[in-house]
Please model this.
Amino acid sequence: MIETIEIQKVYPSGTEEIHVLRGINLKIEAGEIIAVVGASGVGKSTLLNLLGTIDRPTNGKILYDDKDVFELSNNELASFRNREIGFIFQFHHLLPEFSAVENVMMPLLIGNKDRKEAYDSALSLLKNVGLEGREEHKPGKLSGGEQQRVAVARALANNPKVILADEPTGNLDRKTSEEVHDLLWELNQKLNQTFIIATHNQNLAQRSDRIIKLADGYMTEVTVDYKNDISQQQQ
Ligand SMILES: Nc1ncnc2c1ncn2[C@@H]1O[C@H](COP(=O)(O)OP(=O)(O)OP(=O)(O)O)[C@@H](O)[C@H]1O
Ligand SMILES: [Mg+2]
Model:
């Protein structure tokens, strides 16, 4: 469903250039949960931003259902992104002045959905992530885990095919992180959405279908044996 062909990303840095990605070739099938791992600064967020079409590769292509998304006009791309891709960030980026339900409605309203319809869908999404009864709370009145659940509901609002999550539980304690991970897996089972998750969290990586490891601008796919090795080392 998603294919990257030799994607490269170069950032200018003063008089030099940083070659963050030097040629990433990745195929992702619908319904997969993929963990992207690697040391800090290796390019995980960069890769997610490219997959999410919020940034363009310096070279290479990204195909969604065999179509090169960067051939779309800016307007078409923005609407594609709003429709097909959901984002979850490390810090939820909820709008503090708006209630939980209003935050979840936002992508629906941007997609021109009728207000009443958007409200009803947002309520049902919040119920889905276990936040029934908290709909009218503003983010400041919710716990970190609850805020992250609102962010998950918001990412799901347009029923996107792909959810990109960048350290989705990076700022949560272990127990709350595990609850949010359980929620992601439950949603994946229920809705068959594709999840691509950048993470430093070993438990999360090991639960995923595949682990993509970035190093020196290239990716390697970590094998199941290696996954078992990591879990043995942890015991
Ligand atoms: N907009 C930018 N301009 C210039 N350099 C950038 C930009 N964004 C990222 N970089 C650099 O690109 C490299 C990769 O950054 P990226 O944020 O993708 O790493 P990461 O793997 O997500 O790290 P972390 O685990 O710390 O989140 C870093 O060296 C970073 O400084
Ligand atoms: Mg990052």
User: Anything to note?
Assistant: The radius of gyration is 18 Å. Residues 32-54+74-234 form a domain with the Rossmann fold fold (CATH 3.40.50.300).
